[in-house]
Amino acid sequence: MDFGTQERRVFNLQDFGVKRGLAIGHYRYKQVKPGLERHQHKGALEICYCMKGQQHYKIGEQLYELNGNDIFVVPPNTVHSTGEYPEDKGELFWIQLLVDSSKGKLCNMPKEQTEFLLAALLDKSEHVFKGSFQLKFILEKLMVQLENFDSLLSKIMVDQLIAQLLLETVILSNKPQQNAPSVKLNELDKFIHKNLFRMIYVDEMANLVGMSVGYFKFWFKSKTGMPPREYVNRLKIEQAKLDLRTSKRITEVAFGLGFGTSQYFATTFKKFTGTTPKSFRRLQRE
DNA sequence: GTTCATTCGGAGGTAGAATG
DNA sequence: CATTCTACCTCCGAATGAAC
């Protein structure tokens, strides 16, 4: 049941009789992993559902940034990678579907419905758009079914869930994107940058925008896709990368960003970058 | 001396439901 | 939309020790 405890899993959809499917996968990393090399999926489009944290994709020279609750579609036969970025801390699902209609039906849907859905997705490829709670629900259910696949009932469920998933994804892709950055979020950003050198508590941020702490956390996550604390730490680590290019000692950099100890700074740094401050500095100098 | 991995308890943060 | 409550859990920071 708790597939979330495993950090990464991939299912081959062919094994489950989904003729138009290649693979479906899920990861939940507590710290970054090495990035993905340039690769492509022959005849298959890939949909990525970034649930938590952040993820970058690069197609050609174009870089795409996904935050929590974002969806991204990679067209078939398109070379893509995570660029210079790692596979980031966070949670992500992906599914690969064959576009060639001669491979059979997709989830037992009538042909024209399948082609309609896939065409709609291809149309939105290389665009980032917002997901929904419903999607997470479907994806988790799907993974549980694949994990405990035992009967015809499972097969029916899997087909149903994939169909639901695609339908929901297409509906979301057509929704107008309200990505006007909120005024409150801008203020917060300024506040955080100004106070990057010290500890920043969540209740301070909540006060700043005039919300209760409890609601603030919910609101913040719905806007940025990550909890307040993580957002602050990401910014601190970005600043740390700059500071490490100077001749400051690592301990100084740590204290300068409000970390209580250099040890804790090192672990946090590694969580978001994949390397420790010392080796990061060494790499920069080479 | 400096940096960082490991371990561990408590503080603070998070998710989710119930409610106005 | 905003608030409060609560059970759970992660993260922070101190201590220790190893590697350089």
TrEMBL record:
GO terms for molecular function: DNA-binding transcription factor activity; sequence-specific DNA binding. The keyword Zinc does not apply. It holds the Pfam family HTH_18. SUPFAM superfamilies: Homeodomain-like, Regulatory protein AraC. InterPro entries: AraC-bd, Homeodomain-like_sf, HTH-like, HTH_AraC, HTH_AraC-typ_CS, RmlC-like_jellyroll, Tscrpt_reg_AraC-type_HTH. Coiled coil: none annotated. Residues 186-283 form the HTH araC/xylS-type domain. Keywords: DNA-binding, Transcription, Transcription regulation. This is AraC-type DNA-binding protein.
